[in-house]
Design goal:
Glutaredoxin, alpha+beta, binds FE2/S2 (inorganic) cluster
């Protein structure tokens, strides 16, 4: 990745303001790399080259260090995703309790797309990921930044229908208490 990282790569004024504020929270500004990546992801929808260079320039760290963080964690999207993106846990606890493949097969049939594809209306996408740390409430998945737990096919269908009807904001960067509000009865649980 070249060094056209420079301050010339800009995002919105709001994103610039957020990253400046994040930098001021830490003695070493590179510690803000994870929340700064969220700011870029919120604005661009996923972390493309521009996002990596923007974070690198703002935190004054090499692009490769930003890329290392972005590629390590599955909550950072490296390619475009739907407005609602399912990350389905496929690790042991979820798999033996009817999650993982069973859930992604359901989503494949429901949306008519393969993993990491996006429905033509831009609404839905899904992928399988490793343990999301909620094994005690398996099977589970994350939709954008909100956990849904103790899933069944019926519950997943109900969640999809409610999202279609209400289009709730499930992004991490919004006010945490508001995340997935109204979906509590469907196994919704906040990321903490
Ligand atoms: S095994 Fe699924 S959350 Fe841990």
């Amino acid at each position: 990745m070249g060094r056209e990282s420079d301050m010339e790569i800009t995002l919105s004024d709001e994103a610039e303001r957020k990253v400046s504020e994040l930098k001021s929270r830490y003695p070493d500004k590179k510690s803000a790399v994870m929340p700064a990546l969220y700011v870029a992801q919120e604005e661009l929808g996923y972390l493309n080259r521009k996002a990596i260079l923007w974070v690198s320039a703002r935190l004054e760290i090499p692009p490769v260090h930003v890329l290392e963080v972005a590629t390590f964690y599955t909550m950072y999207y490296k390619k475009p995703v739907g407005k609602y993106h399912f990350q389905v846990c496929r690790t042991l606890s979820c798999a033996i309790r009817g999650g993982g493949k069973k859930i992604t097969s359901y989503l494949k049939k429901r949306f008519g797309i393969e993993p990491n594809e996006v429905t033509p209306d831009g609404m839905w996408s899904y992928e399988e990921v490793e343990c999301l740390g909620s094994c005690g409430t398996a099977p589970m998945c994350e939709i954008n930044d909100v956990y849904f737990e103790n899933l069944t096919e019926e519950k997943i269908e109900e969640i999809i229908k409610r999202i279609e009807a209400e289009e709730p904001d499930l992004r991490y960067s919004t006010i945490r208490d508001e995340l997935g509000k109204g979906l509590e009865d469907l196994g919704r649980s906040k990321v903490v």
